[in-house]
Amino acid sequence: MFPCHGSRFPLHATLLSALLMVLFQPLAHAQRAPLRELQIDSTKSYIRLSGTATGVPLQEQAPGSLSNSVHGVLRIAVSNSVIQFDPGTRVIADTNGSWQPLPDGRPGSAPGCFGGAAESPLAFAVVALRGVELLITSDPIPAEADRFVASGLLFQFPTNSVGSLAYRVTGFLQYQDWFPLEGLSTNGVAQLGEWTDSGQPARIRIPLDATYRFGLLNDDDSTLRVQGMIVASEASSGPPEILSMGVVEGSFRVFLRGTPGGTVSVQTSPDLMAWESAGELTIPSSGEATWSTPATGERVFFRFL
């Protein structure tokens, strides 16, 4: 613990710094675009695997074993024609069959996301991927005319996730093992992504092409290429939930809960017959918002749509 008289800065300078932090920190936070959540459409979204196992091309264990649908939630901030993917964005592969080997590499089959095989004159290998998840992150990316450069996205296997790759090699070479899926890859596509926010709900299409290297018998002797398309849309906002309301410091305040990124239309009426717009309210990423108007003492009705 440092003694007070040993501080480099006088007390008034320290207090001034603290005051500036208090004043400007909320301002910086307020300028951040709210996160919007888009649900991945598993009927339109898919990923396909290809690559090599110790230099030998990867083949299907059975028809469709290297293709799969995906689900999950995309968390995106959009502001002033700029789009950015939050680290909470997660793409999860479904289970599409039972594949060799077992999760620890022993002989046998178990449910998994992908199953591959590779054969050479000296050996035969089977590979199974289970618990496959990908995180999508990015720096701010310009979005113009409903298009954005999808090559600015990063795809990462989550650290400490349940994702794993098990393999078993037989023939002249005998080997079996497993390891957790890990690694980071940039999106290698030339195709542009699509972002549509002109109506409800917002929609996005993301082409995917990411390559990872790993070792079966030697370091980096195998590759895994992940290709596909991710399609997601924002859930319809629906009517908000009114948590509480009341007069606070001369203002009538209503506390609401709704869909993050959704828009709430506020309307007023003197008689519940004729309604007029009183503005709109955007629900922040927290899902809760406050709307207020001066309390004039006149009878007036409000509704939130």
Shape: elongated
- Tally of discrete structural domains: 2
Number of helices: 1
Regions with little confidence, pLDDT below 50 for 5+ residues: 1-31
How many DSSP E strands? 27
**What portion of residues belong to β-strands?**
over 45%
Structural class: mainly beta
- What composes the largest sheet? 14 strands, antiparallel
Radius of gyration: 27 Å
Give the H and E element order: HEEEEEEEEEEEEEEEEEEEEEEEEEEE
| Mean pLDDT across every amino acid position | 82
How much helix is in the residues?
under 10%
What would you say about this model in short?
This protein is mainly β. The protein is built from one helix and 27 strands. Helices cover 7% and strands 53% of the residues.
Secondary structure blueprint with pairings:
Blueprint: H1 11-30, E1 35-40, E2 46-53, E3 56-57, E4 59-60, E5 67-79, E6 82-85, E7 90-93, E8 97-99, E9 110-112, E10 114-119, E11 123-130, E12 133-138, E13 141-144, E14 147-148, E15 153-157, E16 164-171, E17 175-180, E18 183-186, E19 193-196, E20 203-214, E21 222-234, E22 241-248, E23 251-257, E24 263-269, E25 276-282, E26 288-294, E27 301-304
